[in-house]
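**User:** My hope is that you can spare some time for a protein that puzzles me. I have put the entry right below:
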Amino acid sequence: MPDATTAEKTTPYWWDAAPVRPIPPRPLPQAVDVAIVGAGFAGLSAGLVLAREGRSVAAFDAANPGEGASTRNGGITSGNIRPDFATMVRRFGEARAIAIEAEGHAARKFLYRFIAEEGLDCDFQPTGAFKGAIGYRQYDAMARSAEALRGKVGIETYAVPFAEQRNYVGSDFYRGGAVRMDIGGLHPGKFHAEILRIAQGAGVAVHSGTPVTGIARDGDGFRVATASGTVRAGRVLVCTNGYTDRAAPFLQRRLVPVRSRIIVTEALAPETMARLMPRRMMLGEGRQLGHYYRPTPDGRRILLGGRESGNKGDPVGPSLLMRAGLAQIFPELADVRLSHSWFGNVAMNRDMLPRIFEADGIVYASGFCGSGTVWAPWIGMRAAYKLLGQEARASSAFDFRPPASVPLYRGDPWFMPTIIQGYRLQDRIAMLRARR
């Protein structure tokens, strides 16, 4: 075992039980009803709907299916919306803000029903989630938000005062927080493998190691150029999210890939896990660069993730930063060894909302902003119904104008280190104002 400053593995913890693998090569079809770019949660979920409706579908992935964010995330079924409820009311009006929050609740319920009805073996645990407040003022805002969501949307959520905090998380770092009982956790590697299984069973032709290099109009359809040849498609759905490249330039100008790093501890003593995570909940916090963390599905380790400063560089520094975050929350884990440390890209856009939209006949389902475990299957399926013309089933509060493009951006997020440092400064100021 290496020393405590490094991790034994730099691949995702989830790959130990559910390794990503290439799909055996198959000939490209000459034509399909729908070509899907990306074979992660969103692309495969869309393909499943389309194939079950009798459409011929080919899904193309530049790497192994699921090798991107789908199997690199924390497996928390949060369906978070980055802007808080009050901000969305100011930005979009109360009606859309309520519709967005209600859709998040519906998407989570759908996900849990989907797992049960399809018999997906993915270690799903409906634990609930606790979000810690940095100061008492933030706690008051969380309490008001919980009351609004409970009354307006019907979500089971409630505030937790500081005096009761250790019933939820074995730390004094926060000043109370809020619980939502409609959030749980799953094993994202197993979840993707199961969606891949049922999508292929429904007839979706999945092509791994087959990057799409261009999409062009061809009469009433499209020519989809890939590294293995060209396919004619009646419709095209792009679901590349944080791994969008020049094959989809319209989307690339609107999505910024941001690295998220995750560490996993060595196995901890049962009494330690019981003390630090007494309810085995999913956990998060109210900082701009806040951490998300949880017990692994077997309840033996702690997984913690957060944003990296840039998109390049040595992984040791970011791993040490995550370790420091873990020790800030749980001081007794300052010297704990790490078994895994890895990163993946999440996709952010300027208004920080998931989106379904159409441009020049191509439909896009993307922009999950770090919460794709819930949003990717939901948005992917809504986009599939949109392609099918089933308006009632396609209806979504996220189906509206495309996100605004990012000025001076063409795929290289050169500005992200500056933005991350700005968020760090905001967090420092918030901590000082909290008078901790």
